[in-house]
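Long-time lurker, first post.

We've been arguing in lab meeting about whether zinc ion would sit comfortably in this protein at all. Half the group thinks yes, half thinks no, and nobody has a model to point at. So I'm putting the question to the forum: if I give you the sequence and the SMILES, can you give me back a predicted structure of the complex? Inputs are below. Any interpretation is welcome too.
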Amino acid sequence: MKISKIILYDEPTVPEIRIDKLKKFLKDSFPISIESRGNFFELLDGKTCQNIAKTRILDLKKPFSSHSPTNNDVLIESENKDMSNLDEMVLYDGYELQKAISEKIPKNEINLDTLHIIFTNKLTCTFDDNDFRYHARALISSNPSIISTTGIIEAPAKPKKYYVDLMTNFSKDKIKEIKEKYKGEFLEYHDSRLSEIIEGYLIQAIFYYETGEAFCEHNNCRLFNSHWQKDLLFTQIENKQFCKKHKVILKELQN
Ligand SMILES: [Zn+2]
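Top reply:
Settle the argument with this. Predicted structure of the protein with zinc ion, as tokens:
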């Protein structure tokens, strides 16, 4: 393996991450050392807060363009809020955010053999040139890699019927009822299954770093890029298997 060490940065607003469990999972899965640290976004200097605020997406249907953040946007970055819990969801360009935070990785820890993985509650998105709009993403694969817990909930789609039900029922009581009807079929905020799901995204981040490919086209493989919550729950909780090709690569990485 190229990687000999992984450093995980926790997101304390999402206790369901269970960093100690993930550390053990990685240790049991790969011959590497694992270190965990506190929140990467804590105690950031003003300039970094400004740089992060600049990565907000202002228009979902336009590729990213640089802009000056408002004082309030910068302030929010310094407050370490639960970003999944604001009145209005803030969207960040995943690659721009990755650039902004990579500047804060200590120089002596930027090595090819150390992979940094940062958890965040910020919703990361990437612009898709095919349909010319931003889409939410759970994983920004790079070094540092970003795993967005909000992205895990929001990026893979819920059942089509759920949306139809929502669209045809506007009252608050009804929405509650509909959520109850589909309970368990998709992840919700503070879902107890989150840590197990994250294991899959950790593997995808590692595979991307090692092989240049994060995803697999087979929906029976843990590296499958799940566009639906149903597939995410199947690949990472029910099935937990790799396809033939990735089983071989996994074995190679483990030796
Ligand atoms: Zn595969």
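For your lab meeting: The first helix runs from residue 19 to 29. The pocket of zinc ion is lined by residues 216, 218, 221, 223, 242-243, 245-246 (CB under 6 Å). Whichever side wins, do check it experimentally.
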